[in-house]
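Final report, Chapter 2: Outcomes

The project's central promise was a pipeline that accepts a single protein chain and returns its three-dimensional structure in a standardized token representation, suitable for archiving and comparison. That pipeline is now operational. To close this chapter, we reproduce one record exactly as it appears in the project archive, with the input sequence first and the structure output second.
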Amino acid sequence: MPASTVKLMCNPGQGDYEIDERWVSTDAYTMSTLHPPTRPSRASLSLTLQVSADRGFSNIMTPSPQGKFFTLQCRMLAVKHTLEVGTLGGYSAIWLATENPGLYVTTIEFNTHHAEVVRENIEAAGVGDRVEVFLGAGMDVLPQLYGGHPCRQEGARRLQLRWCRLGQQLGLC
């Protein structure tokens, strides 16, 4: 790979990552074609990115072409409810909800500050009625969400056991 196309981005305390200008160009072209500035959700998505950056969030949100891809998948499959674990600034949830009016998004965020910003971003995007944010660790919240359906009590018990085993393997319990 030619050195001129790749630059190492250094973010103190957040790790290093590479940005390849060829991918940046490809993403820009893809988005100008698949999601032009005339799309209604474009302003709310841009605002979400700006607010998240202003609040000190890392630049690790879902890339725009992947967000568009997720929304198209949900639309093609007629998805009515989706789950996101790890919300950050709410960019993916807003992508999904603004582009799929019949879709309900449940999202889980561990960080209290992130969850507050997410709720603000979701309200600003006008999708607060279809995006629900849960605060807590996925290992704690997922079994509660899954167990909320009476017909799934046995499945919830098994899921909770799996989470517990995983937590023990990772040294979290």
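Archive annotation: The helical segments are 21-34, 41-54, 64-76, 91-99, 112-125, 138-147, 153-169.
This record, like all others produced under the grant, will remain available to the consortium after the project formally closes.
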